[in-house]
Design brief:
This protein has 486 residues and is an alpha/beta fold. It has 15 helices and 16 strands. Strand 12 and strand 13 form a beta hairpin. Helix 1 crosses helix 3, helix 8 packs across helix 9 and helix 14 crosses helix 15. The longest helix is centred in the last third of the chain and has 27 residues. The termini are far apart.
């Protein structure tokens, strides 16, 4: 309850923390006032992200308010995503509130360099570097949820057990314990039965694509068909390997297998990027027939673990052992770890190991051993349950915001993943819209970036890394810009 204790004499009401004075609080609104004071302090830099708030008992005593007022204020900060409870470490600031847009001295130059109709190879680096108040670009999980305590425990345990020889050069395929942990993880969570000896640990799906591109070229493959719409980043990796990427249309049942006219195809069957559709049963059977006739399937198990309103979708690799299968922990833990895995049929395996060896001699071993421990102890499953709930709430917040600010937009891919795609029935220049949004401090990706052939305009909007407040404000900016477009 918002009940203040009897006031102290003049001059003794308040706390040294943020120079708080309860006399400034409106009647009956102490918890709101206190939460607002903390948000303002984070926004202007007085409280840094990572800083710890005072214990609720201590602050309540200093302010002469009930402890319930302070705990309620802290809970509101946690619900907003600005703070997190860390057990004995207390309540910690994990994100800054959205600030009003600051004027840019040269928005035209910034937009022209970043959001263009024909993005170059450096576009994603430029997008990441571009300043923005609210980043709604897809592909990033809630990085504030990284399990620091569990990671530190696992790292200490691993270091206690390591022999000096473990600090030398390892197997380019990856640490044996990591490959064993991955094989068990895939069996439990993706229905894939694979021997640890079939697994190559890689620096994420990006490196897996680069290695596959190199090896496929060695085997005489000159083109890999890709879904349309499909990931611009994946196309760029294949192009860098000298491969053509003919587009194959995607509908509500996934890629149209009957339209395949290339020796190989790259698919995201569990949660197609960017539409979010699942490769249907009939299409899977068509794909198996196509592969049996000599076609090469590259499966990116994108976003498979992040599902909310549907049953699990089996990996194609679980039914078709000849698939080149790729996965990672970038969307489950953090992209910065650069850890993933690649399974390949025997005809490509030795060449892929050689390509990995000459690329980097193998991934850093310590991170592999820590991650293997998290997989084997069940910590990674626990982390998945935590982030799945948080991501679901943020997805719901984005759907509400879209309904309020962009009611005419059609939403795709809501049942799973870390992003939504919206399309517009009326003519909208989605590149110009994304550029205008960036000029106002909101990052999004135009759907046309991920198309090779004409199609409905739209936006690809990530929600996992943002708070509900940020999502609502960012979508409101987009709604206003669409309303103002000619």
């Amino acid at each position: 309850m918002d009940r203040a204790k009897p006031p102290l004499p003049e001059g003794s009401i308040g706390s040294d923390f943020l120079q708080l004075d309860v006399r400034e609080a409106p009647p009956g609104g102490l918890a709101d006032w206190l939460a607002g004071q903390v948000r303002a302090a984070v926004a202007d830099g007085r409280l840094p992200v990572g800083g710890r708030l005072p214990a609720s008992r201590v602050l309540a005593a200093e302010l002469r308010v009930s402890r319930g007022v302070v705990t309620e204020a802290y809970q509101r900060l946690i619900d907003d995503g600005h703070a997190a409870g860390r057990g004995r470490a207390g309540t910690v600031i994990v994100a800054a509130p959205v600030l009003p847009p600051s004027p840019s001295p040269s928005p035209g130059r910034l937009v022209s360099k970043v959001i263009t109709p024909l993005p170059g190879a450096e576009v994603f680096d430029a997008v990441r570097a571009a300043p923005a108040r609210i980043d709604l670009t897809p592909g990033v999980p809630d990085l504030t949820a990284f399990p620091r305590a569990a990671w530190l425990r696992a790292e200490r345990a691993v270091l206690d057990e390591l022999e000096p020889s473990h600090f030398g050069y390892g197997d380019p395929r990856g640490a044996p314990s990591m490959r064993l942990a991955v094989s068990r993880w895939l069996a439990r969570n993706r229905g894939i039965r694979a021997d640890p000896g079939e697994i190559i640990v890689v620096a994420g799906v990006a490196q897996a694509l680069t290695l596959l591109g190199q090896v496929l070229r060695q085997h005489g493959v000159s083109a890999v068909a890709v879904e349309d719409p499909g990931s611009l980043g994946a196309r760029q990796h294949l192009h860098h390997s000298g491969l053509e990427t003919p587009p194959v249309p995607v509908d509500d049942d996934g890629v149209r297998v009957a339209s395949l006219d290339a020796p190989a195809v790259l698919l995201t069957p569990a949660h197609q990027f960017p539409t979010g559709v699942v490769l249907g049963g009939e299409r899977r059977r068509e794909l198996m027939s196509w592969a049996a006739a000599g076609g090469i399937v590259l499966e990116d198990d994108y976003d498979a673990e992040h599902r909310y309103d549907r049953a699990p979708v089996p990996a194609v690799r679980s039914m078709l052992p000849e698939v080149c299968y790729m996965g990672s922990v970038s969307k489950l833990l953090a992209p910065a770890l650069r850890v993933g895995w690649l399974l390949a049929p025997p005809r490509f395996f030795a060449d892929l190991v050689a390509a990995k060896r000459f690329a980097d001699l193998g991934n850093a071993v310590l991170a592999q051993l820590v991650l293997a421990r998290l997989m084997e102890t069940g910590e990674l499953e626990r982390q998945l349950r935590v982030v799945r709930g948080r991501h679901r709430r943020r997805r719901d917040a984005m759907i509400r915001a879209l309904s309020a600010s962009m009611p005419s937009a059609v939403v795709h891919g809501a049942a799973a993943g870390l992003h939504l795609t919206v399309t517009f029935g009326s003519p909208v220049d989605d590149v110009a819209l994304a550029a205008a949004a960036l000029a106002e401090g909101v990052k999004v990706q135009p759907l046309s970036w991920h198309r090779q052939r004409p199609g409905r305009p739209g936006l690809v909007l990530g929600y996992a890394a943002r708070t509900a407040t940020e999502i609502a404000e960012g979508v409101a900016v987009l709604g206003r810009l669409i309303g103002a477009s000619p």
